[in-house]
Predict the structure.
Amino acid sequence: MVWLDLLLNALAAGILLGGFYAAVSLGIALAFGLLDIVNIAHPVFVMLGSYVAYGMNARFGFDPILTGLLFTPVFYALGVLLYRVYYVSFERKGAESLRGLVFFFGVLFIVEVSLLLAFGVDYRMVEARYIGETFQIGPVGIAFRLLVPCVVGVALTGALYLFLSRTFYGRAIQAVAQDSFALRLMGANPFRVKGIAFGLAIATAALAGALLIMIGPVEPAMNREYIGRVFAVAVLGGMGSIGGTLVAAIIVGVAESLTSTFYGPSWGVAVSFGVLLLALAVRPSGLFGR
Amino acid sequence: MANRLVVRNVEAGYGAVRVLHGVSIEVNDGETVVLLGTNGNGKSTLINCVMGVVRPERGEIYLERDGQRIDLVGRTPEEIVHLGVTLVPEGRRLFPKLTVEENLLLGAFRADARRDIAKNLEFCFEAFPVLRERKRQLAGSMSGGEQQMLAIGRALMATPAILLVDEPSVGLAPVLVSRVIAKIRELKERYHLTVLMAEQNFNQAVKIADRGYVIVHGQIAFEGRTKDLTEHELVKKFYLGV
């Protein structure tokens, strides 16, 4: 039963990949889903996270996940700074829609080219003892290079979910795009709330980047193939729903894994766009949209 | 904690348009004061001045808390909320895609209110039982009357020292207006709230007011106890159509 083994393996790999996709997409769920900021530069910050993990690993032998965790405060600060620039230059003037998009496109280019200049076009990877390990459950092989990112991705999703639903700032983040004036009447400063949310969005990229380079070697232009994917996941999940993002990420992961197993890997990227179109046509508010 | 709100000789407007011409009002501790006036006379502008949304060109607005004076002019709305002045805004301004409970919890964002959350939540559910039944429902999916109850509940979650209510009757069916007004009276009587309410529905507003001001073209045309208000010529002319 080769066919059944293939199917089971593809399903398992898809679910594991989905946990990782959730980690990459959470920043979009926050920025695009909850703040209405079309941050198409998010995947390039994930790449930045990958190269930080690479640098710390090649130079000091740091574990990529440890690096990812260590650098979340740095990325958070970067995100807060980026939001301030965006706010002063665009949002405050009410010019955020198109010019904001162009701004983030520019950020994408600058970061990508900087990474190219610093590291070149060669593929880079990290080394850690557990990355190459695999174990078998019956016919299904579980690779650690997929399992660890999945576990971390799910944990990150859980942490963000708890933060957004249980804390005062979390609830303020959920409310800020709905009525920022009313939020001021609650005693919360919308500019600050959005800065925190955008900082968190970029902070998730530090960890997601460490996971990305664990799954396979990276090169700077790889962020492009993630742009469509993360937006597909965020929209399918239901704009800003954190639980929905995880479910949508697993759906996209399984769909991609099945197509690349049975029809060839080159179809992989088309799948996420297919899912996005389907979601927009059938259920534009997403699976868990409010 | 005794709180008193004082507005003295406030002049304010938008750009070249002057809306308030030297308005003075006072709200004493435990009092319910209504600010009466038809549309376009400056009620909301005055409320917005108190909340720090509009900055007066001249005049003073301050709180007296246990004899101590706290100036409000020049503070941001967030700071004023943190001082314990909360507003139920015109048009309710709920967060439509959050649940009733999430809306209420956001009302308790003010640092001083956070330790009273359990007590205040119980208080809101007791005052407005419908909110308890619907606590998992999205605020935007409720009826106008229920939304107004939620807006008041959300403001009460902040443990307000002074509660401002801007036009609670707008957009509500008459029967619901009566119900909302009755609720505000019940709250005031049971919990010793200090309330300033802007309203154009005279007959409803006087049911709960201790005192009232009539504002016409940005000036206080008349002030007095509720009983005097109903007998005043100007009020009869403007509101009662006598």
Summary: The CA atoms of residues 118 and 186 of chain B lie 21 Å apart. Chain B has two domains: 1-82+163-168+194-242, 85-160. The longest strand of chain B covers residues 3-14. The beta strands of chain B are 3-14, 17-27, 32-36, 58-65, 68-71, 85-88, 162-166, 195-199, 211-216, 219-225.
